[in-house]
Fold this protein.
Amino acid sequence: MAETRPNGESREVSLRAVTSENLRAVLALSVAEEQKSVYPRSNAYSIAEAHYPPDDDPVWFRAVYVGETPVGFIMTSEVPEQGEYFLWRLMIDAKHQGKGYGSRAVELLVERIKGTPNGKRLITSHLVGDGDAGAFYRRLGFEYTGEMLDGRDRVMRIDLSRDAGV
Ligand SMILES: CC(C)(COP(=O)(O)OP(=O)(O)OC[C@H]1O[C@@H](n2cnc3c(N)ncnc32)[C@H](O)[C@@H]1OP(=O)(O)O)[C@@H](O)C(=O)NCCC(=O)NCCS
């Protein structure tokens, strides 16, 4: 059963489509100022890239909700026929961080991928710096592959064909 706040509002995390109804709220979400060196892209930038991606792989994105409140954003680039999913963006608004929402959003993504016929691997990458997301992803079972993307992003991977922590 989903946890509820004292006012009765649900704290269940869900991934919901970005629509004309919630667009402004999603664009208003932001990481903390000091996190922008390791996560420089705004949600506006990410949504624009989702529509004009650098390659032909399908892009999937959702707002992260807690109950009826948008708190974050998640976006993947996908090669379903190879069972490969790349977690391209993940952010939780600064004032909602540290409450388990980011972890739950990744778990929901993993559940979705495991529900696809061929989902095998979830890959991500992060810029290196103070407060980078490496420790967060390691806690979820991701491991470093040793590769770098564009010479500056460390690549991490979780194998979904075995149960690896999420
Ligand atoms: C990384 C991020 C998505 C995590 O979301 P969150 O909701 O704050 O994370 P959770 O509350 O689920 O954290 C789970 C655990 O990871 C830890 N954690 C979260 N972010 C961390 C970070 N940047 N470095 C180290 N540990 C971190 C939390 O302290 C928590 O540990 P605890 O249970 O011992 O307290 C969020 O901090 C964020 O938006 N950061 C800026 C954007 C970013 O770096 N995104 C990743 C892109 S590659």
User: Anything to note?
Assistant: The longest strand covers residues 69-79.
